[in-house]
Design a protein that fits this description.
The chain is mostly helical. It has a domain of 199 residues. The protein is 75% helix and 1% strand. The protein has 19 helices and two strands. A two-stranded parallel sheet has the order 1-2. Helix 2 runs antiparallel to helix 5, helix 4 packs across helix 7 and helix 15 runs parallel beside helix 19. The two termini are 27 Å apart. The relative contact order is 0.10. One of its GO terms (molecular function) is dolichol kinase activity. It is found in: Endoplasmic reticulum membrane. It comes from Tachuris rubrigastra.
Length: 519
Amino acid sequence: PVLVESLVVFAIVLAVHAVVWDRFSWCALALALQAFYVQFKWDRLLQAGGAVFQFRGAANSGLLPASMVIPLLGIVTKERCRAAGIVYFERFGVVVASTGMLLALFLSVLAVGITKPVPTNTCILTGMAGSVIIYTMKHSLAVSEVIEVLEVLLIFVYLSMILLYLLPRCFTPGEALLVLGGVSFVLNQLIKRSLNVVEGKGDPIDFFLLVAVVGVILLGLFFTVLFIFMDSGTWISSMFFHMMTAVLGLGVIMPWLYRLIHRNPLLWLLQFLFQTQTRLYLLVYWTLLAASACGVVFYQNTKRSSESKKHQASTITRKYFHFIVVATYVPGLIYDRQLLYVAAVLCLAVFIFLEYVRYFRIKPFGQTLRHLLSLFLDERDSGPLILTHIYLLLGMSLPVWLFPRSCAPKGTLAGAGALVPYSGVLAVGVGDTIASVFGSTMGEIKWPGTKKTFEGTMTAIFAQIIAVALILIFDSSVNLNSSYAWILASVSLVSLLEAYTTQIDNLLLPLYLQIMLMA
């Protein structure tokens, strides 16, 4: 399975660079080749228990698929913005690609360094790949951009040491690279923009995303350190938790956001949410869907209490939430993407805050959340945190957040790139859901070495093609021109990756589909 997963990733890398070829293409190919060899070193370290931290079990290291996501995103963003003539975001894409390569190289060097005996051939290959990457960066980046890349690397190193120690068995090395690398980049961007505030420059919704992500992460780190010295399950600790959350929110996060957008954040948010009648209708509709999702949770827990203490939700039951998320995102993508952008940020902040309440057993809801959510655990939730629902939200939202709006043409979007904001809906909401449901109920022919079925994968591809046709009918801003063959190839490769990867598919698949569609 690891070899087939690697072949699919190599096929995606080659397909992207067949369309987008520049000096960074050599770096990406060198990085992919050395990551392929190094991931086997990581796998042996994980099996032997020789890794520095405790990583998630029942999965391979995932180094190769994770290593290529950020560099490829940077490369396709750079090309799209260069074609649109937006120099600022073209340089931003170069920085993203360089940062992703350096972070992946750091993880590779770490694995090689702690492997005993030292693997000579892999060391040479990693050294050669590193030389190509550093040489290209030297001739492509300005001094300020080099400093920015090194800042992100430094934040990533410290953040990894802290979070991987505090949260054992929550990530594979590849997932840690994606999640912590993304958080490190967001934190560095927020610091950079806070130090260089220019009134009227920058979209407030972008600042809202940066401040919300960094705010909830800092909140979690603060309480993790605090509850080392006191019991988090008492009423006194719970009252202190709620009080300090209010203090940090109103005393740190709100002023920080005010400095960036130069207006009262709460008034701006209320004005933004209720600006048009369409937004009001969408908010009411989303509230009803959220209530239905809560209803599913309560109903399934009622069944557990009446049937058996060990009753666990089935795969089909867990996919109910995928259908609800699709029903949430599609109207937002068609009618008001900016509202969907902000609503997804708010939802992410709420999800992470509720996970803190559950993890720290904060009264009065902490123990209740533990009981309710334990029904929906699977083998990927082997650590102290429950992250699958957060990954689902991220997988659906990242294509919306990362879509380069400034580089998109006004009016009707042409070509496969018009489907980029729908990447999460197609890959996770439709493809992964249909593959799981049909594969578990009617699948008979299994892919070699996996539990996934051939019927599930084929049905997922077919369902995504139907979904693309429906998007064309209902979203007048989408015009695919003659890019149907590229869309079919993109959907097929990502569906095959879903069949073979052991990483969190809710996070990985939308990003790869976005890369293919942007290319």
